[in-house]
Amino acid sequence: MSIHGTHRGRVWKYGSNVDTDAIVPARYLTTHEAATLRRHCLEDLDPAFRENVQPGDMLVAVDNFGCGSSREHAPLALKAAGIYCVVAASFARIFFRNAINIGLPVLECPQLAQVAATGDELEVNLAGGWLHHRGLSYNVTPYPEFMQAIIAAGGLVPYVRQRMAGGGNSCAGS
Predict the structure, then answer these.
(1) Which domain, by its residues, includes 82?
(2) What is the count of structural domains for the chain?
């Protein structure tokens, strides 16, 4: 995933406390296969999502996005569905960490979470730390270089594999 430069995408907007069971129902947790999880992403919350989501779309939610269980299936399903990043006023901490671990960018922006609507266009620059929406700009905390490298590699495991293959034995950003 390229995190440098600007990305434009369509918004899918959801409310507060969207839990991991709403993102991918528990009945599909017998697999880690991305294609299977993609087919069931948000199916109980928004049946139109899986039929209409396009690669590069973005998800915006209000408070406590990703609450519930600690499984990685939820961010994996969103990423497999083509979601470029998730923006919310706040995230469940374990979801936030799992998203980074699988290479799905997540950004906290309470102001945008209140005003965005499904179908809006959103412009994001992950490395620059900003969002543009309806003529307004919002600053977000840009990721440190080592987290940018994890996301660009596609997640923590691919990042570590790349570092090991390259002979790197120190932490990025050290």
Answers:
(1) 7-165
(2) 1
